[in-house]
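Amino Acid Chain and Its Fold in Token Form
===========================================
Scope: a single protein chain, as residues and as a discrete description of its fold.
Amino acid sequence: labelled as such and written in the usual single-letter residue code.
Position: the record begins directly beneath this header, with no further notes in between.
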Amino acid sequence: MNLLLLAREDFIAPDLVSIRDRRHRHLFDILQAGPGQPVRAGLLNGNLGSAQVVTQTTEQTALRVALSEPPPTPAPLTLLLSLPRPKAMRRLLPEVTSFGIKRIVLLNSARVDKSYWQSPLLTPAAIAEQLCLGLEQARDTLLPEVLLRQRFRPFVEDELPRLASNSQRLVAHPASFQPCPSAVAGAVTLAIGPEGGFVPFEVELLKAQGFAAVHLGPRPLRVETAVAALLGRLLKL
């Protein structure tokens, strides 16, 4: 945990918080942060700063906070991601969040197993938990927006033109002839398919909305690897 991420309900006074959940256990058991010790802290969707342990028991930690620094600038990229396997999604949501992505669309597509949409990991609370892990990793506080879209064509034709407006539009597609650009200036909307990629019909629908098909080379990659490689290539990190 690189950042103690606080919520407004943690505050018991204007500059004092009390935590009892996994964050307390991490401070107590892993960091062994006792009274007087400072830690990096931030308020969810608010400022960054520092917190100092005031009192601590085995059940709770109280800290005095001073939060005056703005969070990092969001990455100018919207990610359209075919809904991955639940185990993969548990890894991907924190990872994508740690890149500074602030809009993620989890999208149905032909090769997505319909059972994935029944996963308990898609509840708002479960999604928020994974996003917060990514914020803690990257020392960020701005919670991404996550949209769930189970109908591919209506989303692409009706919603995507607005979401992708004023951005460079790219779809990762192994069969394309154009290599993925790097360190792109300006906003980007990136679509990444499931294992095996988007089917041709889906690629054509995206192309009709101005998406250019790009690849990362001749080696087929797992979705988790492709996401990290594409974001690292496109963003000016």
